[in-house]
Amino acid sequence: MARGKIQIKRIENQTNRQVTYSKRRNGLFKKAHELTVLCDARVSIIMFSSSNKLHEFISPNTTTKEILDLYQTVSDVDVWSAHYERMQETKRKLLETNRNLRTQIKQRLGECLDELDIQELRSLEEEMENTFKLVRERKFKSLGNQIETTKKKNKSQQDIQKNLIHELELRAEDPHYGLVDNGGDYDSVLGYQLRFHQNHHHHYPNHALHEASASDIITFHLLE
């Protein structure tokens, strides 16, 4: 059954268009490869898809530059001259911009002022004054931030000092302050001290009868 003739027009569906592009691109590259092998031809193909993606084919025995150079020789068309001229023009503009920037920097350092007229000197003076104003504002803002930071640090140190003094005063007023930590009570402490003295008396009765340590005084004081 004969194939129907395909109408050549733009494919509206994007997916179908991409699929067709890929298939026909591969077919074209296959034909170019066959020409290279069968006929010893030098073939170069450069393609850009609708999304500007580059695809290219070049015969294994040559390069793209060699093909373009050969094209210039055979067709007497200078492919590179226009591009070279554009590059030269871009280079000239960049050099001019660089010279102007260097001159402006020197003028702001007080150099190269002789070539300026009175209006240019006034403009430079106003610009420098505005710059000084911005620098001063930034300096004062930075100093203010440092002062505020220092004040906060001092306030924190003062709070720590006050807390320490307050705790020392509490210890001086109450000798039992801080004796028991972690939720303990005085009974457990007294029980431990009483057991300690009972054991001490059992093992060293004579010593216990004749000597009383500081622990004995504290224990009976707490019992009272």
TrEMBL record:
GO terms for cellular component: nucleus. Signal peptide: none annotated. CDD domains: MADS_MEF2_like. Residues 1-61 form the MADS-box domain. Residues 84-174 form the K-box domain. Residues 84-138 form a coiled coil. It is found in: Nucleus. SMART domains: MADS (SM00432). InterPro entries: MADS-box/MEF2_TF, MEF2-like_N, TF_Kbox, TF_MADSbox, TF_MADSbox_sf. Its main location: nucleus. It holds the Pfam family SRF-TF. GO terms for biological process: floral organ development; positive regulation of transcription by RNA polymerase II. Keywords: Coiled coil, DNA-binding, Flowering, Nucleus, Transcription, Transcription regulation. GO terms for molecular function: DNA-binding transcription factor activity; protein dimerization activity; RNA polymerase II transcription regulatory region sequence-specific DNA binding. This is APETALA3.
